[in-house]
Amino acid sequence: MDLIEVVKKRHSVRHFSQKSVATSDIKEIIKLAQLAPSWVNSQPWKVYAATGKTLEQIKADYEQKDHLNEKSHPDFPVMHRDDWNNRTQANMKQWRHEIVHHFADFDEAHHIMSDASEHLNYAPVILFLTMPKDSSLWSVFDMGSFGQTIMLAAKDKGLDTIPNYNSVRFPEVLRKQLDIPEDETIVVGISLGYAEDIKINTYQSKREPLEDVLKISK
Ligand SMILES: Cc1cc2nc3c(=O)[nH]c(=O)nc-3n(C[C@H](O)[C@H](O)[C@H](O)COP(=O)(O)O)c2cc1C
Predict the structure, then answer these.
(1) Which domains does the chain have, with CATH numbers?
(2) pLDDT per residue over 46-78, tens digit each?
(3) Which atom of ligand 1 approaches the CA of 14 most closely?
(4) Is the Cα dihedral 200, 203, 207, 209 positive or negative?
(5) Is 95 a pocket residue for ligand 1 (Cβ < 6 Å)?
């Protein structure tokens, strides 16, 4: 695929098929993503790829915590939606509105989105990205570049992804199952696999008009 096609075709997939992902693909994707830029080439990233029985156990532990209504506590704090600035809040509201309209009604949308979340998108692989706890704020930018390169490299191989807050809600489960040291911050999970042919995966999110985003000064 050429670059423009890859960029346009990448979108978040929320229900993966059970088709497994080749280990060689995971290695090639991460090797390519290592070419992402970082502050003074500091390369803050590490990747813990959860697959097979390990991922099944993570899913089971999450299910149990959800069953007990345990409050999420990801390593990065989550800001309440009402505290975001007006523009980004409006974009989030618009997204939620469109998702509901993609389905028959709110109940169907809620049921399908909740099911996907509860099962960690049925992903056969989740790549958990960490950075050292002693990091500069700039490293978060580096992690974003690294993550996007992972998602584009995956799309180029015909694989789908979703970057996910949902999968990093209970860091102690991930530290235990994946042996992630305490001095690393778990930034995000990127679910990886092949999209199931199902309605939830046909939703395409929209973007703001270019004029609202780009200002060219002469
Ligand atoms: C850091 C981050 C965390 C996200 N967490 C979730 C999540 O927990 N659940 C979810 O359904 N989507 C999640 N997403 C996906 C976004 O909703 C999605 O990227 C956005 O709506 C744009 O759609 P697209 O990725 O299909 O272009 C997350 C995205 C990012 C970048």
Answers:
(1) 3-80+120-203 (3.40.109.10)
(2) 999 999 999 999 999 999 999 999 999 999 999
(3) 11
(4) negative
(5) yes
